[in-house]
Specification:
Elements lengths: L1 E3 L5 H8 L2 E6 L4 E3 L1 H6 L14 H4 L2 H15 L5 E8 L5 E12 L5 E10 L1 H16 L3 H34 L8 H32 L7 E3 L1 H18 L3 E5 L8 E3 L1 H17 L6 E9 L2 E9 L19 H6 L7 H11 L3 E6 L4 E9 L11
Parallel strand pairs: 1-3, 8-10
Antiparallel strand pairs: 2-3, 2-6, 4-5, 5-6, 7-9, 10-11, 11-13, 12-13
Helix pairs in contact: 1-6, 5-6, 6-7, 7-11, 8-9, 9-11
Length: about 375
Amino acid sequence: MVASKSKEEPSDFFLAMSGIGTWEWNTKKLIWDDYMFTLYGLEKTTITENYPLYRPSIHPDEKDRVEIEVEYALDGKKDLDTSFKILLPDKSIRYLHVRGKNFFDSKKKIASIKGTAWDITKRKQLEKELQEKIRKVSQEKEIERMKSEFVSLAAHQLRTPLTSMNWYIELLENKDTGPLNEEQIECIENIHEESQRMTNLVEEFLNLARIESGKLKQNLTLTDPTTFITKTIQECHPLAHKKNIKLVFEKPSQKMDSIQLDKILIHQVIHNLITNAIKYASEKTTIIIRAKDHKQSLIIQVSNKGIGIPKSVQPRIFEKFFRADNAVSVQTDGSGLGLHIAKNIIEDAGGKIWFTSEEGKETIFSLSLPRKNTTITTKQT
């Protein structure tokens, strides 16, 4: 059964203005807010049939995969987080990204799923257009020009909704629209999470543009590595907690020497390695972050036990826009830029980054940073 909500909540209005629909599945019926009907190109209505509206709208090519992912969510095995294409009433195609969080009763059985959905058609079209152009164009200069255009266009496309979302978040957090109930607070948290994802993506695009234009600059400051790494790990705890993953920092018994580094850029690299380790680790496992002095370098390692990296694609893992198939199946979202940017940042700092991995087992990413850095201009503060 599919039904619309009885009345429009303030949070629904702000979500709709940001292009986000909300839904709830309580195992008996599927409840949509008004914007969900807009996303599916349907008139707002109440359906009394047992067959939910979303199923016949799913594109035939995607139906089996989506059904399996939904069944996993309904069985309480994992939260729903997927992208798929739908057929609108006029037969045109729209791409949606759907996320849902499972809620359990006192007997630990699934009681309901609450989630969000938003239109990612423009993003998919941009990706498809870029891939098609790259495939057809052989001239190196033309390829570089198109990549720059894509980065610029993507950053522009992301800035507008990001600014809007952040403004709405601020309104709700300041309670300018009135007191907030639990459902509204959860909606705000979802908006904040997606806003942060978009912010990170914009930052990746900007760093990519700086790298390709040769304008990446590192501002070095004398830094205590133990304190620096500890703070970065602490930022990753909420994500690890969602998968019941433990983060352990193994450091030498003796205090490590301070090192000159760019706190913003190196933080981005370590944060990326840890969050990747969390995303692709098995649930209820331990991720170990190690740091040690080695000759004239600082060595940092991040190890996890999870899907691993297939041997056949390991030579491509630092390529721009590349993602292994097993990584895409686990985490549908991702730009394929994180490791490419990390490699460029570390090498620009005069260091190295490498990994060892066995599919389905352990993966260890390592990086080294020189203590006597002569490859870049040092700016101490």
